[in-house]
Amino acid sequence: MTSKMNDHYPAFPFPLPFLLDGATGTEMIKAGMPTGVCPEKWILEHPETLIDLQRRYIAAGSDAVLAPTFGANRTVLSRYSLANETIPMNAALAALSRRAAGKHGLVGGDLSPTGDFLYPSGNTDFDELVSVYAEQASALSPTVDFFFLETNMDLACVRAAVLGIREVSKKPVFVTMTVTDSGKTMSGDTPEACLVTLSELGISAFGLNCSTGPEEMARYITPLLPLSLALGIPLIAKPNAGTESSGTKGPDAFADACARMLLSGVGILGGCCGTDERHIGALREILDRWDPDTFPTGLALPDVGAMAATARQVVYIPQTSLPSPLDPSEDFLDDADEMAEKLGFLYIRLNSRETADTVLEATPFLPAPLCLCGSADAIAYFRKRFCGVAPVI
């Protein structure tokens, strides 16, 4: 059964509002997990600890629990000399969560950053990072109902993760970013640009998790509602119980603060660090009392059919005649600066994969988002690797 909120997000596969679980890592530490160990291996050695926690979340009202596979990709596991255990470890951990949820809840496959960054910001190859996530997702897909990519600090890396999942599974993908006090990710990506960019890849939900308490998170997530509605992608808020500056909130205060996000249109809620089943139970009471008629309406929605984006900026391409496109060369950035100053965006012709690579290598220095024309093969090659949205004109 779906609700009136689903009328605004008809493609979302589960009833809204939707309640996730609370913290796993901090709860495992409270249960005795030592620091410095591989959390996933420790959980497999203490399965009843995880099952007990997740059954408490389900009893408190969670619609879904996340499998404890946060760091179970081969890059992270290699730091514990466990890379060869990636497939069986993910399958076993997902099975534990399925056992805990039983018939009363869904299971999400939890995926996190590897800690490495893509070239040119780092040394990791794009196709290699895609394959890291494809491997993990292939082990999770038979058991989970959806994928949950969380605590992401770099849009380029999470794009690769979504593409990796899509190589092996058609199940829904939720994505949450983590922002600093600037309202941007550690890499400088804006939530708006992240949402627009990831919408191109067919994600089912988008939002924020960790690093902030509910009041701070509300400042960054609620302005996304018009864009969320225009794209048909519901918003997620999974805040910490609090921060050092704001203090840790008890269950009722946490739920009351989250309720303000619900009233502002955020349809998927949960808890991150410092939250437990009491916080989730208090949130469940809020969701059960929610009046569908309070969902914000009458908002001016952006024209999403004409958007271009980099990781830091979104622009709307006017439906008017365009100037002659730029042909990339080693020194094309001078011409790009001039065009961006006049138009607010770039119009670039890609005639080969070599010219596409020229623009990709210049991505950190592009003065504005871009639209494309040229060879279909070169454009497809570019758009798969480009961290942003580059419409074809």
Please sum up the structure shown:
The protein has helices at 4-8, 25-30, 39-45, 47-60, 74-77, 86-101, 126-140, 155-168, 191-199, 214-221, 225-231, 251-263, 277-289, 333-343, 353-361, 376-385, and strands at 18-19, 64-66, 106-111, 146-152, 173-177, 205-209, 235-238, 242-243, 247-248, 268-269, 307-309, 314-316, 346-350, 370-374. By secondary structure, the protein is α/β, with parallel strands linked by helices. α4 (47-60) crosses α6, α7 (126-140) packs across α8 and α15 (353-361) runs parallel beside α16.
Written overview of the protein:
The protein is an alpha/beta fold. It has 16 helices and 14 strands. Strands 1-10-7-6-5-4-3-2 form an eight-stranded parallel beta sheet. Strands 8-9 form a two-stranded antiparallel sheet. A two-stranded antiparallel sheet has the order 11-12. It is globular, with a radius of gyration of 21 Å.
Overall 3D shape: globular
Poorly predicted tracts of residues: none
Fraction of helical residues: 40-55%
Oligomeric nature of the chains: single chain
CATH fold call of the largest domain: TIM Barrel
First-to-last CA distance: 41 Å
- What's the CATH H-level superfamily name of the largest domain? Homocysteine-binding-like domain
Order of helices and strands: HEHHHEHHEHEHEHEHHEEEHEHEEHEHEH
